[in-house]
Amino acid sequence: MSEKIPPSEITPESVYFNRRNFIKAGVFAGSVAATGGIYRFFNPPPPPEVVTAPIESVKSAGFSTTEPPDSFETITTYNNYYEFSTSNACPARAAEGFVTRPWTIEVDGMVGKPRVFDIEELLRFEQEERIYRFRCVEAWSMVVPWTGFPLKKLLDMVEPLSTAKYVAFQTYYSGKTNHPDAKLPPGPNGMQSSFAAGIDLPYLEGLRMDEAMHPLTLLATGIYGKLMPNQNGAPIRLVVPWKYGFKSIKSVVKISLTDVQPPTTWNLAADDEYGFYSNVNPNVPHPRWSQAQERRLRDSRMQPTTIFNGYADEVASMYAGMDLVKDF
Ligand code: MTE
């Protein structure tokens, strides 16, 4: 990690973006002035309109929130997808050319029936709509009407061994891992290097077996009943609504069952800032900011953050007897 950007400079994104763009602006100013590029730099074109196909027959699973969902536009224009950009505003455009067909997910490790699933098969599973609160570790939040199916359904099909304790997830990655030269052209599919992203890639996440099998844990294939937009993790991503958003890994290509706690990207980047569990918890501040409140993207209003993001009745029992300050 020593030659890379220190984790403390990576988040929160708002700080990162402002400071780095300020520096970048200085560097670029001279070269683009003659071409009118300064105007374009400070007034970037609007993100492309997101056009994705509707998902056939979505049933309502009865998971809802008291607040209305955020708009499709909000959900698809304010993102975190470091493989494409470290700015919240940019993944919509940067991931525009991301090719997500054909696509497979390999499921292996401590299972009786390891298998490769094709995305077309997964899209034929019964698709449910689930409206969940979504809380980013950067203290913004929204309400998202996901479409998808419980992860448990896929795991049951590979027959987990009783010795499996954890589930490890991996995102598709096309670029060169850990390449020290940020100036390298991006790899196929427009993904940037680990150096430019400031985190090790491919992006990794993990859950305990009971968390992975929990009925709330979703493999999401879409938003608002339409196929998942690239910037939100096409064609299929994890959604774990009681944990900080970074646990909800995008564009999953591999799922492995294991008996050891798997490495996770943000924990590798800064283990004092991002724990393995990362359950939403207003009582455990991030070392550099409070987690007591959150900013709803819809109207920028601040509101109190609730333990387990409001899903305590469903999930708290999984953590009985644990010290949630130590095991954050
Ligand atoms: N998955 C991958 N592969 N790469 C990422 O950069 N960002 C995470 C998570 N999953 C990320 C990822 C973070 S920090 C958040 S908050 C959510 O995706 C954002 O999801 P959204 O863009 O759909 O809102």
- The global form is globular
Number of helices: 10
Give me the secondary-structure category.
alpha+beta
Q: Give the mean pLDDT.
A: 86
CATH architecture descriptor name: Alpha-Beta Complex
Instruction: Please give the domain count.
Output: 1
- The quaternary structure here is single chain
The N- to C-terminal Cα distance equals: 23 Å
What is the C-alpha radius of gyration, as a whole number of Å? 20 Å
Total strands? 13
- Low-confidence parts, pLDDT < 50 over ≥5 residues? 1-35
- The residue fraction in helices comes out at 10-25%
Helix-strand sequence = HHEHHEEHEEHEHEHEEEEHEEH
- CATH domain fold name: Sulfite Oxidase, Chain A, domain 2
CATH class designation: Alpha Beta
Share of β-strand residues: 15-25%
What does this structure look like?
With 328 residues, the protein is α+β, with helices and mostly antiparallel strands. It has one domain (59-319): Sulfite Oxidase, Chain A, domain 2. Helix content is 20%, strand content 22%. The protein is built from 10 helices and 13 strands. The chain has helices spanning 13-32, 37-42, 72-77, 91-94, 119-124, 151-158, 194-197, 209-212, 265-269, 312-315; strands at 58-63, 104-109, 115-118, 127-135, 140-150, 166-171, 204-208, 218-223, 226-227, 237-239, 252-258, 293-296, 302-304. The strands form 2 sheets. Strands 1, 4, 5, 8, 9, 10, 12 and 13 form an 8-stranded mixed β-sheet that branches. It has a 5-stranded mixed β-sheet with strand order 3-2-11-6-7. It is globular and about 50 Å long. It starts with 12 loop residues before the first helix and ends in a 13-residue tail after the last helix. The structure holds ligand MTE. Ligand MTE binds at residues 79-83, 136, 171, 203, 232-233, 245-246, 248-251.
